[in-house]
Amino acid sequence: MHSDLALKLTADLFWTGLLVSMPVLGLTMLVGLVISVLQVVTQVQEASLTFVPKLLAAGISILVFGPWMLRTLCQFAVQLWSRIPAMF
Question: DSSP string of the chain?
Fold first, then answer.
């Protein structure tokens, strides 16, 4: 395997990982920001108030974006397997 091919595969791996995890992380971060602003405004400092909505947001985003995430990961895996003959 050449070094440029290894770098390309690593870059594709990281890009696919970032792309797949972005909907869950983005929605969870947005919910956390909204809850934090509400906590500051109301001065309610409850630990479960931040944990439960973020957990629900992550679960809902996995349900909504799950098929797309799985399809993207499967396309990456098929592309990786198809590149094996060119590596040798």
Answer: --HHHHHHHHHHHHHHHHHHHHHHHHHHHHHHHHHHHHHHHHT---HHHHHHHHHHHHHHHHHHHHHHHHHHHHHHHHHHHHTHHHH-
